[in-house]
Amino acid sequence: MELDLAGKVVVITGAASGIGRVIAETFARSGSIVAALDISETALAEFGSAFREQGWPSGEYLCDVRDPQSVTRVMDEVVARFGRIDVLVNNAGINAEGLVSDLDVDLWDRCFAVNVRGTFNTCKAVLPTMKAQQSGRIINAASFAAIMPSVGASAYAASKAAVVQFTRTLAGEVGPWNITANSYAPGMVPTAINGFAELSEKDQAAKLDMLALRRWGTPDDVAKVVCFLASDLAGYVTGTLVDVSGGKFSTQVPSA
Ligand code: NAD
Q1: b/e string for 108-123 if b means 16 or more Cβ within 10 A?
Q2: Could you tell me the end-to-end alpha-carbon distance of the chain, in angstroms, rounded to an integer?
């Protein structure tokens, strides 16, 4: 069975680095056209040269997903250049650490502004195009933190739970136009968003002991699931949350 993603126009937020970058490369290898949105000008420029070197068709767009005007302008530019938007991947997200008693309200707001308001902004902005096409795939990054309590990450966990429920609700609203909306929950993938790679060996082992598969997730693990959700294979999947955490438990899982 083929994923059949060749020629699809795929908008990915936060595409310039981390998991988003690998999602973008995976779509590009499947023949998709990638519109990469990111807030980092430097990372976007590097992304553009790497994609050109590979001969992968792409467009780079400086965009802060928190800002509805910036998002709408970019989506208009993407449609003017590539003619359509088949897939939207809301990958951009930020972390916010701190116990509730210490957490600054501005950090809480920033976290919700990127993770929740940003997701709302991009979804709203692609709907006129997807409705006119009578097709579309919306795929939103949640987290295992949306499923289980994450002490010290209340803002992040609550924001990702909001993404899951927003996505489920959106699925019901857009289904009649043949648009699907799903979210996915990565587990522990060492990137700039977290300090997993810098933890002591003992702390890393303790975290890995809570994963059924006993290894960190990779951006590639996540990208494969996103591509599946964008493909024809997932044409009848909507309103769901796909767990791609390697089996994350709140306590240690037994050894083999
Ligand atoms: P990352 O920090 O490595 O990359 C995030 C990207 O988003 C960066 O390129 C950044 O410039 C961009 N970005 C940040 N704010 C933005 C904004 N306002 N507008 C546009 N772009 C913006 O993070 P990552 O680890 O690759 O995470 C990607 C997604 O996966 C996030 O939504 C994150 O919450 C989720 N996730 C990650 C993990 C993990 O372990 N890494 C676990 C669960 C969920």
Answers
A1: beebbbbbbbbbbbbb
A2: 34
Beta carbon of 60 within 6 Å of any ligand 1 atom: no
Q: What's the burial of 177, exposed, middle or buried (CB within 10 Å: 0-12/13-18/19+)?
A: middle
Ramachandran bin of 44, using left for φ above 0, alpha for ψ from -120 to 50, beta for the remaining angles: alpha
- What is the three-class DSSP state of 242? strand
Q: Is 149 exposed, middle or buried (0-12, 13-18, 19+ CB in 10 A)?
A: exposed
Measured from the Cα of 145, ligand 1's closest atom is 43
- Please give the DSSP secondary-structure letter assigned to residue 169: H
Report the alpha-carbon distance of residue 161 to residue 239 in Å, rounded. Answer: 14
Ligand 1, closest atom to CA 113? 18
The closest alpha carbon to 250, from 156, 147, 165, 141, belongs to: 147
- Per-residue pLDDT band for 252 (boundaries 50, 70, 90) equals confident
**Distance between alpha carbon 76 and the CA centroid of its chain, in Å?**
21
* ipTM of the shown complex: 0.99
Which of 159, 164, 193 has the most ligand 1 atoms within 8 A of CB, as the residue to mutate? 193
Q: Provide the token pair at 159.
A: 């924001």
Per-residue pLDDT tens for 14-61?
Answer: 999 999 999 999 999 999 999 999 999 999 999 999 999 999 999 999
